[in-house]
Design a protein that fits this description.
213 residues, alpha+beta, 2 domains, 6 helices, 9 strands
């Protein structure tokens, strides 16, 4: 199965040797078989050696909901695939001689992406920086997880986790570090949204504090 013409045009634009194109096409065919969605975008990480030689490392494919990655140079085949949709926890971008508009021969760009289980990175030099910029905007920024304010846990949930019968034993409260920070047990219960479901009065002596709910 041949890669999309757009993929081949991209590889030509960053001067990928023909011998690598064959390997990349093999990897594209494999991902076509194992990924639930067809790859719609490709990126090749590249670097410049001290002697000026341009070298190519990782192959990255993108679909709407999946990120795929493998290495051109590897002793055994290893193929990475992970959900992409709203899965990026953190995005870090490092650049050199690049204004995010038009790359030059001196431009360098690196993008670090933190997924829930692992961090990945993509590198670009010269005109490849423009391609990586587009990847960042289309796939990484769009899939950053939105911050959600953590909801306070109820005293019932904490008791359930500890296997404590809240009706019979309130002593577990003083065993929690969070609760030891404040002598005001009533205020702690209020902050955690504790409300007595029945009208029975709950009264215990805890560390000298009289608790009445």
């Amino acid at each position: 199965m041949e890669m999309r013409k757009y993929f081949i045009d991209y590889l030509n634009s960053i001067e990928v040797p023909n011998v690598f194109k064959e390997k990349i096409n093999e990897i594209y065919e494999l991902y076509y078989l194992i990924c639930p969605e067809e790859a719609e975008e490709i990126f090749i990480s590249d670097n410049i050696k001290k002697d000026g030689e341009r070298i190519y490392g990782k192959i990255h494919f993108f679909s709407e909901n999946f990120y795929m990655e493998t290495h051109i140079y590897q002793t055994k085949d290893s193929f990475y695939i992970v959900p992409l949709k709203k899965q990026i926890i953190r995005l870090l971008i490092e650049k050199e001689c690049y204004n995010f508009k038009k790359a030059t021969e001196e431009s360098r760009l690196v993008s670090f992406i933190l997924f829930p289980e692992e961090e990945k990175f993509l590198t670009a030099t010269k005109n490849n920086c423009d391609y990586l910029r587009n990847i960042i905007v289309k796939y990484f920024l769009q899939n950053l997880q939105l911050y959600q304010e953590p909801q306070p846990r109820s005293i019932e949930d904490i008791a359930l986790d500890l296997g404590v019968d809240l009706e019979k034993d309130m002593k577990f409260i003083i065993d929690k570090k969070e609760f030891r920070k404040s002598p005001d047990i009533k205020e702690i219960l209020k902050r955690h949204g504790y409300k007595k479901k029945r009208t029975k009065k709950l009264s215990n002596k805890i560390g000298g504090e009289q608790l009445n709910k």
